Amino acid sequence: MAMSASGIVLLALVAVAVLAVVWAVFQIVRPRDRPPAQERLADEAASADRMLAAEPAAPAAGERPSREQSLEKWEQVFQAVEWGIAMVGADVSTLEQMNPAFARMLGYSREELVGQPLFSVFAPSARDELLAHVALARSRSHHSFESVQIRKDGSEFPSQVDVTVMADTAGTVRRRIISLRDITERKAMEQALRDSERLQRMVLEAQRELISRWRPDTTLEFVNRPYADLFGRQPHELVGKRWLGLLPDAGSGPVAALIADLVVRPRRTDYEHEFTSTAGERRWIQWTFIPLMGQDGRLTGFQSAGHDITARKAAEEALAESERKFRAIFNTQSQITCLLRSDGTVLELNRATLAFTGMRAADAIGLPFWDASWCQGQAECREQIKKAVARAAHGQPARAEVVLRWPDGRPATIDLVVRPV
Question: What pTM, to 2 d.p., does this model score?
Answer without folding.
Answer: 0.43
